[in-house]
Amino acid sequence: MLPSSQGNSCICKKQFTTNTAYLNHVNRCSLACAQTEKASSTGVSRLAAILERNAAKKREKDLSSQHKLKEVKEISKTDQLLESLKRKLAGGSSTEGTKPKRKRTSTGPSDMESTTSGSNQDPHKVGDGPPTPTSPPPPTLLRRIRLRLFRDVLPEGISRDLSGDRLNDPDPSSPSSTDSASAPRTNLPRIRLLMPKWVTSTNRFGLYREYRAAPGPSHIPDETASFNDFVLPKTSSRPTVPVSSKAEVDKALLDAVHPFPNLTSFWFRKHHLDEATNSKSAMSKFQKLLLHPRFKATDVEEYNIKRTDSIIVNSTDIRTQSPLQVSTSGEWTETSVRIDVPLSTKESQLPALPIQISGLHYRKLTTVIKTSLSNPSTMKKVHLEPYRSFWKQPGTGATERVFDEVYTSDAMLEAHDALQRQPREPGCDLERVVLALLFASDATHPTNFGQAKLWPLYMAFGNISKYDRCKPGLSLMEHVAYFPSIPDEIRDKIRAKLGKAAAKPVITHCHRELMHAIWRIILDDDFVEAWEHGIVLTCADGLRRRFYPRIFTYSADYPEKVLLATIRNLGDCPCPQCYVRKREIHKLGTVQDINLRKSKARVDDAERRERVTLARDFVYGDLRSTVSGIAVENVLKELSEVPTMNAFSERLQHLGFDFFSMLVNDWLHEWDLGEVKAVIQHLIRILYACKGGVDLIDEFNERFRKIPPFGRDTIRAFRRNVSDLKAFAGRDYEDVLQCIIPAIEGLVDEAHDADICTLLYSMAELMSLGKLRMHTESTLASFDEAVSQYGKLIRRFASKTCSDFETSETPREYEARARRTARKAASGQRELSDSSTNQLLVSKATKRFNLQRFKLHSLGHNTTSIRRFGALDGYSTMRSELEHRSAKTWYKRTNKTQTSTRQLTTMETLSRKLRKIEAAVASILDAEQHLQGLGPPVKPSRMHERYEMAASMKRKLVISSFIREYAGDPAVKRFWEGLRDFFISQLRGVRYDGEDTTYSNEERHRLHIKNDTLYQHSHLRVNYTTYDVRRAQDSISLRTSRRDIMVPANDAKLDHPFWYARVLGIYHAFVSEEVKGEPSKWSRIDVLWAGFVSLENDGAFGFIHPEEVIRASHIVPAFADGIEQKTIGHSFVQDPGGDYNYYYIMKFVDRDMYMRYRGDGIGHLDPLTRRPLSNTDEEGQAALPTLNEDSFSDTLEEDLEDENESSGTSSDSDSGDSTDSAMDMSETSTLSEEADETLDEEL
Predict the structure, then answer these.
(1) Which of 362, 718, 827, 1022 could connect to 704 by a Cys-Cys bridge, CB 3.0–4.6 Å?
(2) Residue burial 47-77, b: 16+ Cβ < 10 Å; e: rest
(3) The whole model's pTM is what?
(4) pLDDT tens digits, one per residue of 985-1005
């Protein structure tokens, strides 16, 4: 066996990328055998040599077919043991206290050898430094990297398979079998519970579906999915319109735009409605509109704006014969809501004061359903029957359940099974479909200044894919209602009745009563009838079906959740899903916490309703108790309940609906704007509390400003001071968390620096798992482990780190509190003496880190929500927050008075119906283009290609002039040789491996580069398939800092699957090679010039084909380790300030990137980037300590030592993921005798 430093290389100068090729070569090459015998001087090496020979013999045997499977398994096991031996041999050279070599980066970060010494060294930091004297000189990167073509597979759907062998009676033990114990109790006749399942074929990614019964649904939306359906961002396809002449086009356009008199007037009204401001974008669109050949300014004279808008909004006088007509339903209703305000006094004859609150605008739910499903573009996206999705892992064959969409969730499957069990409607044999309703509501301010407020209610269908539903441009989020708020005049009415001001608990009670009074109106008798008996609709495909609406989720922030759940805001049991008490929240992730969530789940049972009824009798009965009186508190306070009847319980409980189940976790408000905000805010307070806090804050902000952006908008540039947290949205906190480790490292004293970085790393990993769009059983298990580990770390942070700092308000918090207090004093709500005011302005309030927070507790419910309703992004309030943009745009068109909401609903109706007209017009104009032979007006997509590079030849680089200009620069030292070697390899179809692929000067001179010119480009777009089987794109730009890339590293010695480079040039050239004295045809070849390692090494620069690029990479300097002074001014391609000693590879920059490092991404089929999880690859597991649940006295170092001792690892090595650091695989020749004995036992 060769020494580990050489990997699979032979003394005859040949190298091999796989064990198979190397072992076959060993049997044929005597030099390799001699080298192998020489290297096998220890017991372990001799065992390895025996393994290699045995493996080679097994491959040479011609076994019969019945033994082939066994042979493959044995060989696989032998190969695994070989790899294990190599890792042990390579890792045995580093002894405790020895510091590995460091190399520095010069042309930008390149993921160099990582240091593992020092307790503060982060496990995924990479970089270079000067080598130690005893270390051998490192080989060049291009010699070691062994680049190979990256295998990228295009996304594809799952085809329908009706073959007989796929129709099977279900196995009771299979995951698709229905558990009769979990079925809802009913007095209906018993029917067969286990129906024959229908399993589809498996696509190339290993995905297949399991429907509950054959022959499956009558319509599958993605059955004939095209490649464009998997491209992100996704756009809707337009229907084709059959036209054969210009006259038919004109007639079709006239029918489509009715009731507008002509196309010009429609365009004029649509532009006015969409563009609320006179921006440059609006001006550009209007200019394009004026230049359209079908736009005629004189046609606007025929347009009566007021009459046409009235016809559209009121849905009258619309020709029913037009196939492209606007829907005639979906009008808004305005009404008032009555609530009873408890007077809580026996002096009044009435127990309550009835008050009418006006301003409720709503649409009937049944009307919204009928309107939406009658729209062909919506109906074709609806999944009529749920299914289970499974993933068969390539290579292993192991099968895992996939959780992504609502219609693949357990809740949808249970609802579908329950519906199919119940008796049909008399005389009805129509297909029965469960229609999943997803509600979301959130109050918002439509303006930046003022007190205007909007409170919209949105609804979407869970039967539609979230990739369609979450796109604002597709308009699949229905506006259902606009809630009114409690007016200020209510206080005047209560004071006039009682002779005193209304108490705060009374006003809070009015808010709860208003919410459920509104929902009693929305959940009307028609909706309850539809829930029980269904709605018969003629769908766009001409078939009639019976749809049964079911409420699945209601997404809202915490203040609104407590209104819907009828519980107290931040009461002793603050969670709307369980009865876990506030004092037990800090136990997140423990076994006790998990058991409490299950055993104390909230249920809408008879006992709860009886308690509420009894409390309301105290308030509204003869006792006339106050809302917060002793009688009410004795009944409801223990479980944090309130004396309000829940509308969902009143209207739907008798149908088996439990409203607590719909209150799902919201990742945006509970994580991004909750937990992340709380931790980052307190870390800033800690920096202020440190010695020289102001300087540390300035350094903190400066580091953030130096962090480069990534992607089009994935990580934006941090231009403002991050420490201010001013006007931060959820995405801003997400960006800060992804980049905060390099920014904060080393600013806090050494005793706490490692703890803080470990906590932040755990949070970043938890965030990545929580925002996955596609989960499997393994990722959910990792999610549970990450939550448990975060619970340990956050408890340690609160007890150990935070207790060592006297934290107080930041300057911005202090100033904001002073302003609030001044406003309250001015309005009379708070009377302050001069002394108290002065004291407020002098001292800052002490701030302690609090663990008794609902948003911390909610993390434990996430995996339950995913299993129940699908991935969290499918019902996050992120989509409703984006929909606020529409309401805010329409609000700018209103008169900003009390009737503004009425005007807003009118514009919503106009916008919804004009969008349908616009889609019809666009399809007709496309047909006209085709009729005229002009082809599609839109440039065809190139997303199916591996990369996109322009064909422009405007910018030229003359090679000879370039080399003369930068003669002596290390970056250009081997430019001529390397470029010609690369072109020769491409022309001959040979893999180019840098210095391992070299040619003679004679061969190089036979290569001709047309005009001795390279054509330069500033951008390269890299297309790739994501982990969730979608097509996405990265952009490499030489004009910005987005120039770093990652390529596969085919190096058997490294666990790390990638190498990194910075793109220095994007070129294409026309080349030919002389063959027998005759030049061949000119061929275009694209090439990237990239910098890899040190400027002091000739192999630091090389050439890559764009197809070898996997993705762009986000690489951030390790600011704490400083700049390598020797690198300043080395080369023109270098950063002016020099190179940092270390860089961070930001694996959490997006979810696809995280899955490439973690492994098991369904869409990642390339074998070198699909790494199975192992102990050494579990970055978070080794890096995070095992903490004592009962005591926080143990230090992090002690916990790490205990964990390292139990796992047999060295305590001085970084307990991080080897995927984020290129490990130093040094030579070793011996292992302990105990290791030899262990290997003998394994053999």
Answers:
(1) 718
(2) bbbebbeebbeeeeeeeeeeeeeeeeeebee
(3) 0.79
(4) 999 888 887 766 788 999 999
